[in-house]
Amino acid sequence: MGDRTAVMLLMLLLSSWCLTAVTGNRGSGARGGEEGEGGEGSGRRFVLEESEEVVKAEGGEVRVVRGYGTAGRPAPMHIGFITMEPKTLYIPQYLDSSLILFVRRGEARIGWIYKDGMVERRLKMGDIIHIAAGSTYYMVNTGKGQRLQIICSIDTSESLGLGPYQSFFIGGGMYPSSVLAGFDIGTLTAAFNVTTEEMDTILGAHVRGPIVFYNDRAPSQPRSLVSYMQFKQMQVQKEGCAAADDEGEEEMQQEENKRWTLRKFLTNLFYNRKKGKKRSAPNAYNLYDRDPDFHNSHGWSIALDEGNYAPLGINDIGVYLVNLTAGSMMLPHVNPTATEYGIVLGGSGIIQVVYPNGTTAMNAEVSEGDVFLIPRYFPFCQIASLIGPFEFFGFTTSARRNRPQFLVGASSILRTMLGPELAAGFGVTEEELRKVVEAQKDAVMVASWTPPKKRGKREDEPLVIRRMVDV
Ligand SMILES: *[C@@H]1O[C@H](CO)[C@@H](O)[C@H](O)[C@H]1NC(C)=O
Ligand SMILES: *[C@@H]1O[C@H](CO)[C@@H](O)[C@H](O)[C@H]1NC(C)=O
Ligand SMILES: *[C@@H]1O[C@H](CO)[C@@H](O)[C@H](O)[C@H]1NC(C)=O
């Protein structure tokens, strides 16, 4: 039933949008689905006439018509209308909602992060494309002197519930603000391996809103592949997005971190064989017996999902364990598919978390026994104190591969997406951006540094539950 209703609603919406486009937005029309307004027999009962402006920029706008849920449930989706003027760029961002974009008019080029690689596609009228929640993307209007009109579904099932959807801008400056700006400046300079001045060149730049005027590169100019081929963790995905949601064995085999492919393959083989032959109750799984999934001189981490241990799939919970050496940092990253709960097992460190609007949500010192949580989509990083290793263990609210997205470092989306679009998103030249983004040679966990001066505990530490347990 849901699907058909959705299709009907979409069709109604399309016609109402066309009407709105002609008559101007009536704005105050009755909210569809509410009782009254002629009651049962009302001819426009399911017409959603109220649209709200979500983005208004020199280069275009986004309006959203909110859906509504039945039986007290939240709306399953909202409908977005993106309009971009000729020669414009929608700067890189990720959302807390999955999108299905439909190109109603015009032509576009869209680039997005897909399974840790980057994909780029040219879109023409009638094309449909899926962008997963938490996946960073940008969009360029490539139509010659033509407006780009896109209609999209905004799936609310994964949203934070703040407004119709929540953008996290990767690019940005004064407006919108990049999520990077929410990290302590000391954290940023250490993470990027640059000076404060160099950091300022990209974060202090003036960006004129989320949709900016932009001269597209010549269509024939090939994208520099060098930067993303340099790192084994990354692959430029050749497949389309049709398989966007497939998970499991196939994915295991195209594991991006080639160093661990063999081990993953063997684990997987073993796991499958067991599953196929025996149906007995599952055995326990020992985290410490497992080889790290990531390892360098600054620490290691293990992430266990249902592919490694099937029982995790039952309640959709993942498990992780991290050991950072003294003074090391786990670079700023984002969990696109899960909220993370952490328990400090040993040592102490600092956890920084950033709000979607690029301000600091938390900058807290934690030590053994502290429990913290990191909301899905919120950028964060962990920094071990200089005293000793910082060990923490935790759970993620998804048993599927979480694929944390690193914002900084050799395996980061800034590196993967480095190009004219990202530079325009920061309001700087590609050279300026490259200088900052390529200075850090390490990935995931980086070298020791001086932690920011203790600024005392913030009044609000909404994400730390202190001393809940003895460990
Ligand atoms: C973490 O690493 C340190 C060495 O850096 C080691 O002494 C400690 O035992 C490790 N912790 C765990 C839980 O393996
Ligand atoms: C950023 O968002 C947080 C949480 O929604 C809010 O408390 C804060 O005031 C916002 N800051 C700015 C500068 O908008
Ligand atoms: C940091 O940058 C310097 C050059 O400024 C470079 O020599 C060094 O290798 C870089 N360190 C890392 C870990 O990338």
Automatic annotation (TrEMBL):
SMART domains recorded: Cupin_1
Pfam entry (one): Cupin_1
Signal peptide span: 1-24
Entry-linked CDD domains: cupin_7S_vicilin-like_C (cd02245), cupin_7S_vicilin-like_N (cd02244)
Keywords: Signal
Keyword Signal appears in the UniProt entry: yes
Coiled-coil boundaries: none
Keyword hit for Nuclease: no
Origin: domain of life: Eukaryota
UniProt domain Cupin type-1: residue ranges: 46-200, 285-434
This protein's name: Vicilin-like seed storage protein
